[in-house]
Amino acid sequence: MTDGWNWSRPPTSSAHPPPGEPQQPSPWWSGGQADPWRDPYSPSAVVLPTPQSTGGTPLETPPNPDAPRRSVASTLVICLVTALLAGSVGGTLGFLFAVRGGYVEGNHTELGATGQNVPESAQRAPESYGGVVERVQPSVVTVRVSGAIGSGFVVSTEGYVITNDHVVEGADDVMSVSFHDGSTAAATLVGRDPESDVAVIKVAKEGLIPVALGNSDEIAVGDPVLAFGSPLALVNTVTQGIVSALDRTIQAGEESGTRRYYAAIQTDAAVNQGNSGGPLVDGAGRVIGVNSVIRSVGGTTAEAGNIGLAFAIPINQAKRIAEDIIDTGKARRTVIGAEVMTGESSIGARLQSVQPAGPAAGAGLKAGDVITKLDGHPLEDGIGLIAMVRKYAPGSVVAVEYRRGSKTASTSVTLAADTN
C-alpha cells in the first residue's frame, strides 16, 4: 500500500466491463457509481440530494432574486448612526478611564492612589517614631543665650527645664526659649552644676507639657533612640540611632576651666552643636539622657561635627542633680573619699591619698591601692573612677575590686556627698 504517489489507471477490462454485462461493485469503492472521486479519469458530476434524502427535513429556501432589496441610502444611514453611537460611547468610557487613571490630555498628571482620606496623624502608631515625636516635640525647647543656641526639655508643669550647664554658661539672669510651634517665652536661671554639666531654668508660660522620664539603668546597647534639639540652629530637629555603649567615662571642659565628669550613654544618632541640653529618648518616648558632647576629628570646637560618636548624661543622674538644684539651689556631688593619680598607663585607678574618715578609708582602702572595678565596671584610669562615682547618688553602696601589690581583693564602699 502506498500514499498514491505512483498510482496508475487500472486495466480497461477491470475498470469497464463489456457492454451488456452487469457491473460488479468494486471492493475498494462503496457506492462507486455515485462517488465522483471513484476514478480520476472518469467524468465527475455533482448530484444534489432530493428533499427525501434529508429525512423529510426541508432544506433552507434560497433567497428570491426578484424580492425587493433595501436601498443603499438607508443602509448607509444605519451604518452612520451606528458608528456615531459607538464613537460617543467609546469616547465617554475612554474619558472616564483617563480621569480615573490620573491622565487627561493637556492636563497635569496626578500620580498615586486616590480615595484614601485618612488623616496623616491617624496613621502614626503611638509606638512608631512618628508617634514618639508627636508626643515629645511639644516639650522640647530651643534655648537662646547671648546669640548662642542650645536645647532643653520641660520636666514639670511649673515650667522647669533641664539643659546643659555649658549652654547657660555666661548667661544673664533672663534668657528666652522657643517651642516647636514657634511661640517664645522668657526664662530665668534656677541653678547650675558645672562639674556634672547640668543646669535648670524656669520658663514663664502656662500649659506646658512635661516629658516622661525613663530609667537609664535599664537601657541596653542596641536599643533605638531619638535625639531632639536644634543642631547648627536648625530648630525642631530629630535624629535616630541606637545606644552604642554604656558607662563611657567622659572628661569634658576646657583645660583652664571647669572639668566635667560623667559615665555617658554613647549613641550614633546625629548630634551637633546646638543639640546640647536636648533629650535623648528611647523607643517608648521616655527621656533616658541629656545630649551633651560629641567626639569629632575637627581641630577646634568650631570645626566639630557629627561622626556618629555622641554622648549623653544618664537621666537618672541628671534628674537627681536637677531635683537638688530646684530644692536647695545646689547639687550634691558624690565622692569616694580619695584622690586618684592621673596619667598612668596601668589598668585601674591608683589612689594617691585616702581621707581618714572618708568612704574609701571606711572600706579598708589605702593609698597606693589600684581600683580595677567599681560595681562590676572595669576601670582604665583615675578619670574613669571619678566619672563612675558621680553616676551614683550619695549613700549608694557599690562593690569595689582592687589590687594591692601583687594581691587582689574586694570590698564594699558606701559613697557620700561632698561637704564642700
From TrEMBL:
Transmembrane segments: 72-99
UniProt-listed Enzyme Commission number(s): 3.4.21.-
Biased composition regions of type Pro residues, renumbered to the chain: 16-25
Gene Ontology molecular function: any one: peptidase activity
Keyword presence, Transmembrane helix: yes
Swiss-Prot/TrEMBL GO biological process terms: proteolysis
Keyword Hydrolase: yes
Principal EC category: hydrolase
Family matches, as Gene3D superfamilies: 2.30.42.10, Trypsin-like serine proteases
PANTHER family, per the entry: PEPTIDASE S12 (PTHR43343), PROTEASE DO-LIKE 8, CHLOROPLASTIC (PTHR43343:SF3)
Name of the protein in its database record: S1C family serine protease
Organism expressing this protein natively: Actinoplanes sichuanensis
